[in-house]
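Question (not urgent): is this output format expected?
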Amino acid sequence: MGERFHLPAVASTLLPVALCMLTLLPHSILGRPAEEENAGSSALLQRVKRGWVWNQFFVLEEYTGLEPLYIGKLHSDMDKGDGSIKYILSGEGAGTTFTIDDSTGDIHALQRLDREVKSQYLLRAQARNRLTDRPLEPESQFIVKIQDINDNEPRFLDGPYQATVPEMSNIGTSVIQLTATDADDPTYGNSARVVYSIVEGQPYFSVDAKTGVLGGLAGTTTVNVTLGDINDNPPMFDQRLYQMSIPEAAPVGSVVGRIWAKDRDIGLNAEMVYSIIDGDGRDQFDISTDPTNLFGIITVKKPLNFEGKPSYTLKVEGANTHLDPSLRHRGPFKDVTIVHVSVEDVDESPQFESPEYYVELSEDAEIGTLVKTISARDPDAANNTVRYSIDKSSDPEKFFYVELTTGSLMTVRSLDREEIGWHNITVLAMEMNNPTKISSVSVAVRILDVNDNPPTLTHYLEAYVCENAKAGQLVQTVTAVDPDEPLGGQRFYYSLAPEAANNPNFTLRDNQDNTAWILTRRGGWSHQDQTVFYLPIFISDGEQPVQSSTSTLTVRVCSCDHDGNVLSCTAEAYILPASLSRGALIAILACIFVLLVMILLMLSLRTHRKKPFLCDEEENVHENIVRYDDEGGGEEDTEAFDIAAMWNPREAHHHPGKMRQDMLPEIESLSRYVPQACVMGGGDSSVHGYVLAKLLDADMDACAPPYDSLQTYAYEGEGSVAESLSSLQSGTSNTDHEYDYLNDWGPRFKKLAEMYGVLETNTPQMW
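Got this back:
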C-alpha cells in the first residue's frame, strides 16, 4: 500500500518600496582607513584633503527597463567642469556589465543583473588628466551590491521521495523529513523563508508547516509512502487432509508431494518452516522448505516396501520463522495439517540376501567344489521363481558355474592362484515370469595359496671361472624364486644334485638366507683342457608338501686379467690375432653370409629330391577310396563294399549291377594286374594269393597306393625343418639319417645322442 501527496513550499515576498541613496565614503575611508585613524598621532603626517567623491547605492536585480540602469556618479573636487578630467573604470564587469561616462563620471549597468549568479562586483575608479593622461588621484576601489528580490521558487532537490512506514503504525509516527531550498537571499527580507503543506494525500498524512506566510512562489514534490508489512497474520493450510502416493521403487530422496500454509503477509513475514510432528511415517519420510521458504516438500527418507507397509500418515506443522514480539497476542503463528501417503505396488527385481559376497577358496580345490550358495527372492507378494546365471563378462574363462535353480556356485576348472589370484564374479537373478526383472550381486573369490610350485634358479644360469682361480674361490651366488607365497615367507634349501655331490671341481655352500655360493674345489683351471662344466643344483622349499627342482648352472672356463675381468671364454681366442681391422671383420661376415646362403640352397634341393613322385591321379585323391554316401546299416549294409572282390576279383565284373558305381574304376585299377593263376583256387589260398599279388603290385608301381589305404598323406611334413616323419616312400631313399645335430642340443639331450650312437668320444665331464 502506498500514498502519494504533493508538498508545496512557499516563499514570502517583501518587495522594497524605496531605494536608499547613500553618499559614498571618501576614498581615504574606503581605501586607507588606517591613515585617517593615525592622522592626529603624528605631527609629521598631515591630513590630505580628498580630491574627488562619488555616489553609491544598492542596485536591484532583474532590472527590466529599456534604458541602461544608472548606478552612480564619480566626481573629483579637481573637476572644474571644463572637461579636462577623464574618469576611468576598471575591475569586475567594467566595459561589459558596467560603463562610465568619462566626462561626467556617471556609471550605468549595461546588462541584466542576477544576485543568484553574482551578488556583488568589485570595481576600481581613477581620475586622469585628459591631455596628459596623468593620474590626478590614486586609484580607489568600491563595491556595487546587487539587492535581492523574490524571484526564485523553493525546490526539492532530491524528489520524488520514497518512504516506508509499517502498517498499523501509531498516529504521529514520523514517515520522512523533507527539505526545500530557495536560491533567494535569506538575510534580506522574507524571500527565502519556506513553509510546507500537503496538496494531496490527506487524511492519512500531515506536514509540519512551521511558521511563515503562505503565498508567493511555490515548489512541489512527490512523496511515495509504502506501507511496510508486519507479521500480523498467522499461516493457514488450505487443506486439512492431503492425499499423496509414491511407488515403492522410488529411491531415497524422491519427492512425494508439496504442501503450503498460506500467509496473508509478504516477504520475510510470510516465510515458513515445516516439520513432521507426529504420525507413523516420521522415520520413513522427511520434509523441508523449498528455496522460496513458502512450500513444504515431502521426500522419501528410507526405502519403501509395499509388502511391508502400504500406507503412512503424517502430521505436519507449518510455522512462521520471523515473529514480532509485540504481536504475539495475535498468534499462534502456525498451523497443522494431516498428510496421508499411499505406497504403490510395483513389480520389483529379485533381491539377494546379501549386497555382496566374499569367499576364500584353496587353489587345489577339486572341480565341482561348492564355493557358495547365492540366494535371492522375489520381494513381491507373488514371490515368483528365481533363476540364476553368471554374467559372462565377469568370468570369461569359465572357471565357475552357478546352478540354475539353487544358486549354488561351483568350480568347473582347476584354479591356479599364481595365474589368477582373485575372481570377481557377477551372479544374476531373474524372475521366471518377467525376464526383464534382473538383479545382480558381486561375488569376490579369493584364491588361497597352496605350495604347488617348485623353486627354480633366477637369472644367473651361466657363470665363469678364471683359469687362475684357486681353491675355495667364489664362482657365483645363486638365488631361487618360487611363485608361491607362504604365510611365513619363502625358505629355500640348496645342495648339489646327488650325481654331482662328490665332483672334484665345485662345491656348494647354503648361506641359510635363501642364497647359496658356488665355490671352486681346486685350482689349475685350463681352457684347453675343458671349456664348459655343467653343475646340477638341487633346490627345495620349506612348505608342505615340499616342492623341489634341479637347475643346471653352466660354468665356463675363461681367461682373465689380474683383477678377475674376463678376457675371453672361447678357444678361438687363443689362435686369433689380438685385433682385427674393420675390413677383415667385414670380409669374415660376408663369407659367413655366403656360406649360410649355400647351406639354405642345399637344404632346399635336398627337400625337393626327397619329395616322392606322385601321379596326377594320386595327387587328386584326398577322400577315402571307399566313400559312403549314406549312413551305415550295420550288417544289413551290403552295398557299401563287395567282399566278393576279395575272394574273386574277376567275379566283380559279372555283377555290375550290385557294385557301387563310384568304386568301379578303383576296383578295376587294383585288380587288372592280378595273375589268373592267383585267383583260380578257392578258400584261403585265393585270398592269400590276392594279397601277395597286390603287395607285389604296390612295390613295383609307385603310382598305385595300397589297396587298404583310406587316406593319402602325400604332403605330410612339407615345409617343416624336420621334413616328413612318415615311413611311406622311405624305401626310395638310400641315404642314411644323420643325428650329429643332437650334440649341439646340450646336456639334456645327451641320453638321446647316446642312443643313436653319435655322442662325441671326447665329451668333457659334466661337473
